Amino acid sequence: MQKKSILSFALVVALYVVIYFLRRAGVITTYWGLILDLALITTISAVGLSLIYGFAGQFSLGHAAFYGVGAYVGAFITKAYGGTPLNFVLGLIAGTLAAALIGFLIGLPILRLRSDYLGIATLGFGVIVKVLFDNSDKISKLLGGSMGMMGIPRITTFTWVFWCAVLVIWLARNLINSSHGLACISVREDEIAADIMGIDTTRFKMLAFTLGCGMAGLGGGLYAHLYSFLHPSNFFFLKSFDVLLIVVLGGLGSLTGTVVAAIGVVFLQEILRDVLGQQFLEWRGVVYALALIVLMILRPQGLMGGWEFSLDRLFVRRPKGGNARGAA
């Protein structure tokens, strides 16, 4: 077990070193490096929604609002107190905690709802947050209001987004493989049966929802310091559908699928921008939607279904003459 953990960490470090030097050497251009950073930030946010919807079965449409809370809180700290690395870290932590705390407070009343009703409640929360962002200049001029927040220090780098993505995936993986994660999955499969079996369903729904919102806040903080500009429209409730599509496309209950779909969707959108050109850029949404429809027809369970990547499949030798169960 310990050897596998060391090997996993070594592979992650090797992946980081390879991409880092490819960027330094110019093999990965500045433009595509920026797209890669955005893909990893999207991955962080999507893993959060995967915990909420994919593993705990809570249909949430307010994910973009929590993403925005993390972005605005983090950006406010660095803009108000200076763009030093320490303030950047404090901003990320504050944005993550703010999104998690609001998720917890919002979750207390709305997680008693189920299915479509929960989705509508989180949708309403997203609309409220958008209105607050539009009028945020009445709280502080630094927030910009409906004109947007400008002049945010550009501090987010590939190193930050890569290791934050690794941290989020590691946390989500460990949670899913723990008894708490199994309790969340049992709530997703049949909440009434889980309740009868003595599982505190409200507690585990709150756990997944709060953690997922906190991850969205972390992604928002990184996004704010990558583009140096925030606008309330970036966090409108329609943006929540983009993350939801990624989670469904990758396969509900598959972290691997969420990661692959998040990176794939971001790069697909940029490739379509190059292929179609500025004249037909509006058709990008049509092509993207058609690709999703075809994929859902061919693989309604998502790209990965419930499959997860594991080093065991790569390095553990199976006995000849059949698998272990057959040999027994």
From TrEMBL:
Recorded topology in the membrane: Multi-pass membrane protein
Keyword Cell inner membrane: no
Alphabetized Pfam families for the sequence: BPD_transp_2
Keyword NAD: no
Subcellular location field: Cell membrane
Transmembrane intervals: 6-22, 34-55, 61-81, 88-111, 117-133, 154-172, 207-230, 242-268, 280-298
Keywords on record: Cell membrane, Membrane, Transmembrane, Transmembrane helix
Protein name: Branched-chain amino acid transport system permease protein
